[in-house]
Design brief:
- It is a multi-pass membrane protein.
- The chain has 309 residues and is mainly α.
- The protein has one domain: Up-down Bundle (Rhopdopsin 7-helix transmembrane proteins).
- Helices cover 74% and strands 3% of the residues.
- Strands 2-1-3 form a 3-stranded mixed beta sheet.
- Helix 3 packs parallel to helix 9, helix 3 runs antiparallel to helix 10 and helix 9 runs antiparallel to helix 10.
- The longest helix has 34 residues.
- The protein is globular, with a radius of gyration of 22 Å.
């Protein structure tokens, strides 16, 4: 605990409790998840950049989504892995502890905007294909990259708070809710604003997604052949699965008026958002996408041919 008139300049991350053996098991598990996430998403980025068959807005969004997944996990997971190797608690400066959630949430905000844009992309491709190239132009694609600007006020407000209750963060990273809990200032108004911002980000991108899929399903059901309906659904299945996982976990984590509650609950959902979802996305978007699989197979064949020569 800190003195009544002092403010913390550094924090200690409590991380995961348990025996040394358990922490080593967790380290190996999370390191495996992070490695697969990094390699899988990097492969998608390289394929999208190199293969001419994937030069469309849909794969532009997919490449950027993969880049965001790499960045989100890199902001959180290496710090968590280092904490699992340390015998005690991990020390983080105030500036680093405020910057980490800023980058994490800024990238997350951009990712949700990207998921909303991907839903609109699928709607235009299925319901209005003749105008696809007109609507989904480069300007439309670049409009989704606004997450950093959206998070400037929260990071400034968090940095201005005084932290005199404690400097122990009960999480594996600098969770903003935990920082508000440690502040000796009245954070009720700030929590309310953060709640409204979370609602705006999540529902602002979720509503276009719901509307787009409503029209998509309505259009697909009008297709007379079963094979045609199946092919149309397959183009949306990957994105829809990602939407369900991503929005479901973040709705439970961020859209609540009280930002400081349920530490264990927040830790589990944070793991889902920062570790599990980025790990699953390369499989979700490649295993159900014939063009990506074909492009990957061609690149593997080219690499094998080069090694043989």
């Amino acid at each position: 605990m800190l003195g009544n008139h002092s403010s913390a300049t550094e924090f200690y991350l409590l991380g995961f409790s348990g025996s040394r053996e358990l922490r080593h098991i967790l380290f190996a598990t999370f390191f495996f998840f992070y490695s697969v996430t990094f390699i899988g998403n990097t492969v998608i980025i390289v394929i999208v950049c190199l293969d001419k068959r994937l030069q469309s807005p849909m794969y532009f969004f997919l490449g950027h989504l993969s880049a965001l997944e790499i960045l989100v996990t890199t902001i959180v997971v290496p710090v968590m892995l280092w904490g699992l190797l340390l015998p005690g608690m991990q020390t983080v400066s105030l500036a680093a502890c405020v910057t980490q959630p800023f980058l994490y949430l800024a990238l997350g905000t951009t990712e949700f905007a990207l998921l909303g844009a991907m839903a609109v992309d699928r709607y235009v491709a299925i319901c209005n294909p003749l105008r696809y190239n007109v609507i989904m132009n480069s300007r439309t694609c670049n409009l989704v990259l606004f997450g950093v600007l959206f998070q400037i006020w929260p990071v400034y407000a968090t940095y201005q708070l005084s932290y005199c209750k404690s400097n122990v963060v009960d999480n594996f990273f600098c969770d903003r809710g935990q920082l508000l809990k440690l502040s000796c200032d009245n954070t009720l108004f700030m929590e309310f604003i953060l709640f409204l911002m979370a609602v705006f980000v999540l529902f602002g991108s979720l509503i276009p997604t719901i509307v787009s899929y409503t029209y998509i399903v309505s259009t697909i059901l009008k297709i007379p052949s079963a094979s045609g309906r199946r092919k149309a659904f397959s183009t949306c299945a990957s994105h829809f699965t990602c939407v369900v996982i991503g929005y479901g976990s973040c709705l439970f984590l961020y859209v609540k008026p009280k930002q400081t509650q349920a530490t264990d609950y927040n830790r589990v959902v944070s793991l889902m958002v920062s570790v599990v979802t980025p790990f699953l996305n390369p499989f979700i978007f490649t295993l159900r996408n014939d063009k990506v699989i074909e492009a990957l197979q061609d690149r593997v064949k080219q690499c094998c041919h080069l090694f043989r020569n």
